[in-house]
């Protein structure tokens, strides 16, 4: 019968427990929580020679009266600008993907998963992460902001998304975002 002391697996587990038990930590106070509001436009361009979003998977189920299919997956690297015109000042990009995740043609919704990467001013290099349902034909959609980096470390908040323009033939869209975040 193997003795307790000579069982190598048990010895390994015991030494692991000792390491975990001795792991050191220290508590600290975060700075004051701040609230920031951001307003900008996002250009999701599917057509032409320089699309900003590309379909990487085409789903099999055509959504009635619509050029998209349940299961379509698009990868996006959309410019974010100060104003609605595509020539307006670039302030960042929305990099991520969206999936047509609703089978109901009367209530088309995306799963939109994207990082907003800011490229100018005091937010340059900081990011906000959005994980949301985007019911694209609703007049206003509320998107949860689930985190951030840099200036927006520990961010939480929401973004209100409105369609500024949408070309139903090409699928090109300009979207208006109002983002409200708490961060430190
Ligand atoms: C889906 O159906 C619409 C009309 O309902 C049609 O215009 C479109 O071409 C179809 N798309 C595909 C990929 O079959
Ligand atoms: C966008 O800006 C360009 C040049 O700055 C201008 O020619 C064009 O009319 C503007 N478009 C709109 C829709 O305002
Ligand atoms: C943003 O930061 C990058 C990297 O530090 C830098 O190269 C770039 O010039 C900055 N852009 C602006 C507009 O400040
Ligand atoms: C919508 O897209 C189609 C196809 O790319 C294009 O021919 C048409 O001019 C666009 N409409 C507007 C208002 O931009």
UniProtKB/TrEMBL annotation:
GO biological process assignments: phenylpropanoid biosynthetic process
GO terms for cellular component: apoplast
Subcellular location: Secreted, Extracellular space, Apoplast
Record key words, sorted: Apoplast, Secreted, Signal
Signal peptide interval: 1-23
Domain of life: Eukaryota
Cited InterPro entries: Allene_oxi_cyc_Dirigent (IPR044859), Dirigent (IPR004265)
Stored Gene3D superfamilies: Allene oxide cyclase-like
Summary of the function given for this chain in its UniProt record: Dirigent proteins impart stereoselectivity on the phenoxy radical-coupling reaction, yielding optically active lignans from two molecules of coniferyl alcohol in the biosynthesis of lignans, flavonolignans, and alkaloids and thus plays a central role in plant secondary metabolism.
Description of how the protein assembles with itself and partners: Homodimer.
Family: Belongs to the plant dirigent protein family.
Protein name stated in the entry: Dirigent protein
Organism: Phoenix dactylifera (Date palm)
């Amino acid at each position: 019968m193997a003795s307790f002391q000579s069982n190598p697996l048990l010895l390994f587990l015991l030494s692991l427990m000792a390491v975990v038990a001795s792991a050191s930590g220290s508590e600290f106070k975060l700075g004051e929580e701040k609230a920031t509001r951001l307003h900008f436009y996002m250009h999701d361009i599917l057509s032409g020679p320089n699309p900003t979003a590309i379909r990487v998977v085409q789903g099999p189920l055509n959504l009635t009266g619509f050029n998209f299919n349940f299961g379509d997956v698009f990868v996006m690297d959309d410019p974010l600008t100060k104003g609605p015109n595509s020539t307006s000042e670039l302030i960042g990009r929305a990099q991520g993907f969206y999936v047509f995740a609703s089978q109901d043609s009367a209530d088309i919704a995306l799963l939109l998963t994207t990082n907003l990467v800011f490229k100018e001013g005091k937010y340059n290099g900081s990011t906000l992460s959005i994980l949301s349902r985007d019911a694209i034909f609703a007049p206003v959609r509320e998107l949860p902001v689930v985190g951030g980096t840099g200036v927006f470390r520990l961010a939480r908040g929401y973004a209100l998304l409105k369609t500024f323009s949408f070309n139903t033939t090409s699928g090109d869209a300009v979207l208006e975002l109002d983002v409200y975040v708490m961060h430190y």
